[in-house]
Structure prediction request, 117 residues.
Amino acid sequence: MDDEEARQLLAAERERIEQELEQLHAAVTRAAERGAEPQDSADHARINYGQAQDLARIELHERELEAVERAEKRIEDGTYGLSVESGVPISEGRLRRLPTAERTTEEQTAFERRGGA
Prediction:
């Protein structure tokens, strides 16, 4: 995959993430402005659960955005498409599906088994 194609894929990924973050932040703000007062413990639990879900999704998208930034840096460094662990090329198919991929599929599986994120 050439650098221009990688940049385009990463730009699309960045746009998707930023749009989702914008929507989540707006939802959290609306909920806070509504100041929804729980009527009972079930309402309280539902409100807290919903807010926790939104905050967890925001955190996930922020980590995804960091992965985009790392991938953009690898393009600039000339190492995009190579595993950060071994330097082995990552398949083009994997990069098209996941343009922020930092490892080969096999390395990623092993990384996750070791407790990596």
The chain has a mean pLDDT of 88. The CA atoms of residues 29 and 35 lie 10 Å apart. Residues 41-77 form the longest helix (37 residues).
